[in-house]
What we know:
single chain, 274 residues, mainly beta, five-stranded antiparallel β-sheet
Amino acid sequence: RDRPDAALLETVLLRSQSRGEGMWNAERGAGDLALLRVPLSSFGDASDSAPRGAYRPLPSLRGGTLHNRFVGDWLLYGRPAGGAGEHALALRFAARDEPQALTLGHGVERIEALGRDAVLVGNAGRDLHFTSLRLQGNEARVVGSHVQRDAAQGETRTHGFFYRASAQDDGVIGLPVLGAATGQRGRRSESASVLFLRNRALNLAAVGELKSSPSRSTRDDQCQASCVDWYGNARPIFLGDRVVALLGYELVEGRRAWRGWPGEKLEELRRVSF
């Protein structure tokens, strides 16, 4: 929402052909895209419709699945299937500028905010790519990237990603990852590891991973207390200055060590199984 002319506007990205919101159906939409912007005060008892002039047509991308996110004054969207010419689109929605094409070279499976900027995550072949975007003024610009070889996301939902900012352009990203052979939403008994990246002025570098203990994580309790299918089995946790990974039934804590560029490395400090 933004506040032109002192009126709150609701901004929503819409697609012309939907399969409903049940389970994975929302990920398989198709058709034309449009941005709907209407005053919040116009919402009522659903007896009225938005005027045609409230819709702004937007360029569509090939394929059914689409990932999008609003970051500040920007709408970012792209599709998972990636290749050498793959791109995403960035629109400063409060202005009347045309959408800007962002050349990535990988698919878009996740879009997250890094403070006022953003990171786009997705695979190209067997490798997982992270691309940082500077969202400043009227320009969206690719700044940095990191490639995690032979990897894929271990959790595709929003709660798998965490970012702890230590300054305006400085912070740490945490994201569960799996081997690429397992693929997205791979179902296997062991937990993913949690990968940590350092963001410095949108330059990204891996600082380490916290991994589960195979002997403990493979015990099958028939989901009495936990289940990979409904919470992803792994997630990063930032607690004050401490860095922790939840990996199945284990909590693994890391500590920072300094050794050359990019300077900070994450090493396992201790673990406990509950």
